[in-house]
Write a structure and sequence with these properties.
alpha+beta, 5 strands, two-stranded antiparallel sheet
Length: 75
Amino acid sequence: MGSNMEKAGKQSERTNTFWTVCTTCHVQYEYLNKYVNKRLCCKNCRSVFVAVDSGLVPPQGSAFPYNTSQLLSGD
């Protein structure tokens, strides 16, 4: 029973995220929805880009999941 609740929690957590892509190097990232249209710093090339929802979920292993260290300070 506990494992079903854990799965349900993970599924609801996924609905709170979106995928975006760096406009310079095209690496894909997953962020919480509260970061849509915010300025982020690419972990790969370090360029700043606006996080727009790409609407696409990349194949496993080809992108970076949500990580708060990618945010710019002050945003």
